[in-house]
Amino acid sequence: MQVLVTRFHLLLLTVTLAMTGVGLFRIPADYVYQAHWTGSAADWLWPREVIFVAPVLQVVLMAAFFLLGRALTKNQFSKSQHILDPALTLLMSVVAATQLGLLLAGAGSDLDFVRVTAYALGVVLVLLGVVLFEAERHTYAGLRMPWPVRSDFAWIVVHRAAGLAYGAAGLGLLAMAWFDLGLGMLVAGFVAATLVPAGLAALITRAVRNR
């Protein structure tokens, strides 16, 4: 059965749900997250109920990847599973880490775990970018799409473009964490850094697949 959702993904969801439950008891009902600042004034406030977003988002991700796995043919699934499985793990881990950051902030901790997550994800994406940029064509390694990349030229173009995109995304997250642009900007950065390079790689792959 072609299933991309594993027990580890269910574990991540369970952990996030547990953090949400703890947040309901530990975070005051009138607490607001100061997600963005203009000068010395907070102009972007999130209510405590924002902690419910993470488990809902994880359920949506799991459902999307489950349906994607069922929609792929056996050949497409075998070629892309080694990419899609860790991709879902990364996305769900970032959501869980962000939820932990919200829980710690709401409970009064001085540890800005969302910034820690930004640093960690930034380093991971920079390393991924270097690996993709320097990768040589291989039967089993590299990006895998449902459609083939037939020529060496197209393979190099796709991987170098994806490598540059992931590297830039990682450096952007590191800069945002360093300059402490705020919780809201970091969360938006997580979304952009994980989705935009992947989408760009898919578009470039389709554009040069027959060259």
UniProtKB/TrEMBL annotation:
Entry keyword set: Membrane, Transmembrane, Transmembrane helix
Transmembrane segments: 50-68, 88-107, 113-133, 153-179, 185-205
Signal peptide annotation: none
Superkingdom to which the source organism belongs: Bacteria
Key word Transmembrane helix present: yes
Listed name of the protein: SdpI family protein
Organism expressing this protein natively: Devosia oryziradicis
